[in-house]
Design brief:
This protein has 488 residues and is an alpha/beta fold. It has helices at 8-21, 28-32, 39-45, 84-87, 107-120, 138-150, 164-173, 187-198, 213-234, 238-241, 256-264, 280-283, 317-327, 329-337, 342-345, 353-368, 389-399, 404-415, 427-435, 437-444, 449-457, 460-466, 469-483, and strands spanning 79-82, 92-97, 130-134, 154-159, 176-180, 204-206, 242-248, 269-275, 310-314, 376-381, 422-424. Its cofactor is pyridoxal 5'-phosphate.
Length: 488
């Protein structure tokens, strides 16, 4: 669970650090409703770049940033609606866009969700402790970013097979970067490194997105509300036309938004997608894949499996092919020639590799349920192609320059998307997936057996986390009051 116990000594040190670094902490409510952010903060943002290592950018941890590289304030929920001329289905597939968060990925929000409660309770002392961020990519970037703002030492842990851009970026921001063996699917190796660090004697705190309920709470509160606001701006009949949300598993955090959505629209279905090459949820399987941004071979502790209605597996060859279609000049030209509006074709770079996998999964979802032109399906573009230009170069080196025939092949691959490798989940299907948590979290990571049972049988388990947002905000406000930085 999310512990909000106060450590007075650590809190005093954290407040002093924030005062020294001129750091004001935004509340979850402000992230949902940026209009509530102090006017003085908004005014100062006019001269701050989106990726600048500036504490003011904590107030840009929201889905509602104006889509601007520098000087932007706030607008509506950032999204892109993909037309049927691209997806091949009549349903309205709409993706929230993570590009306009600091670091260019929404994982900076999940990192904040894990860090903020421990900071404002004094459980984490940024002057004394190192912050450890285990990840398959974007989360450790978000954590290193937040740590840098606090002036505390950070350790980013991620697999050695991740894109070069991630490591280049971390070399400028993180205090230390540790490369673990493997790639996306090698999450256990990350956990093993965490145990090694725990035993090292160093004064560290590990912010593990896969088991930290701060990740769950941030997405339930901030992403969930953004999705409701977005869908209600898209249709006047959300109670009937909003059909579902489709999200890759990753740390399981974003799936918490599905819990919020189901409480607003009981009929909505939540689908979790993964790589076919590592079908953990679909087939209790294992393997390796190329969809950067999602980790596998375990079920995250923060994933409320009882609320998952479907699992969808995507062949990684499809998104790896489509990122060329969406980003190579010949691909963009072909899309425009075949009816994709220029405004969409020119902005498909907003979809990174896992984002394209989410899109494909949403298409499969729409085909499976035979959705019509008034039906809405949501998904998330977790990051853009900004961190994957080296992958495009590698594909060109391996397969040659991308031309007209390649674009036709890619478009055909997209059109051939079918309802294979999908499963609607019944009660015992969900329980089968939930039970996989035992091997990772009870046997390997030391979680309590009573808690894994409570996650399944206690209807108040997840609700007790969901109710903590106001308490976290109260602690943030008290923390800010103690720094005195908002006075006057």
């Amino acid at each position: 669970m999310l512990d909000l116990t106060i450590n007075p000594q650590g809190l005093e040190s954290a407040v002093a650090c924030a005062r020294e670094k001129n750091i004001v902490i935004p509340t979850l409510e402000q992230m949902c409703h940026p209009e509530k952010i102090p006017a003085a903060v908004k005014e100062k943002l006019g001269s701050v770049g989106l990726w600048d290592l500036n504490p003011l950018n904590l107030f840009r941890i929201t889905w509602k940033n104006e889509p601007a590289v520098s000087g932007g304030t706030y607008a509506g929920v950032n999204h892109i609606e993909l037309p049927s001329s691209l997806t091949g289905v009549p349903a309205r597939i709409v993706m929230l866009v993570g590009k306009w968060f600091p670091t260019g990925a929404h994982k900076v929000g999940a990192a904040f969700g894990c860090l903020a409660p421990r900071l404002v309770t004094g459980q984490f002392d940024p002057r004394r402790q190192k912050a450890v961020w285990p990840s398959t990519g974007n989360y450790c970037r978000g954590g290193a970013y937040d740590s840098n703002l606090l002036g505390c030492e950070s350790i980013a842990i991620l697999p050695e097979g991740m894109s070069r851009e991630r490591f280049d970026w971390l070399s400028q921001v993180a205090g230390e970067t540790i490369k673990t063996p493997g790639s996306e699917s090698n999450v256990k190796e990350i956990f093993d490194k965490c145990w090694e660090l725990r035993k090292s004697g160093d004064d560290i705190m590990i912010f593990n997105q896969f088991d930290d309920m701060g990740n769950y709470l941030w997405h339930y509160t901030v992403t969930g509300r953004a999705m409701v606001e977005l869908v209600e701006s898209l249709t006047d009949d959300a109670d009937k036309r909003f059909k579902g949300v489709v999200l890759s598993t990753g740390s399981g955090g974003t799936l918490a938004s599905g819990d919020y959505l189901k409480q607003q629209y009981a009929h909505v279905k939540v689908a979790a997608c993964e790589a076919l090459q590592c079908p953990t949820l679909l087939n209790n399987g294992f393997g390796a894949h190329r969809i950067e941004g999602i980790g596998d071979k375990h079920v995250p502790w923060v994933h409320n499996v009882r609320n998952t209605d479907m699992v969808i597996a995507v062949d990684d060859e499809v998104p790896m092919n489509l990122i060329r279609l969406f980003n190579e000049p010949a691909g963009v030209k072909a899309l425009k020639e075949h009816g994709v509006p220029d405004e969409i074709a020119d902005n498909l770079h907003l979809l990174g590799i896992s984002s394209v996998a989410n899109m494909i999964s949403a298409v499969k979802f729409a085909k499976y349920y035979e959705l019509g032109e008034d039906d809405v399906v949501l998904s998330v573009a977790t990051d853009s192609m900004e961190m994957y230009q080296s992958r495009l170069a590698e594909l060109t080196e391996d397969k040659g320059a991308y031309g007209e025939k390649d674009a036709a092949y890619s478009r055909g691959m997209l059109a051939a998307t079918a309802i294979d490798n999908m499963e609607e989940l019944g009660y015992y299907d969900r329980k089968r997936i939930h039970n996989l948590k035992y091997y990772t979290w009870i046997e390997q990571q030391g979680m309590a057996f009573e808690d894994i049972q409570a996650q399944w049988y206690d209807e108040n388990y997840w609700k007790s986390v969901q109710k903590l947002a106001p308490e976290v905000d109260r602690l943030i406000n008290e923390f800010n009051a103690r720094t005195g930085l908002l006075e006057g």
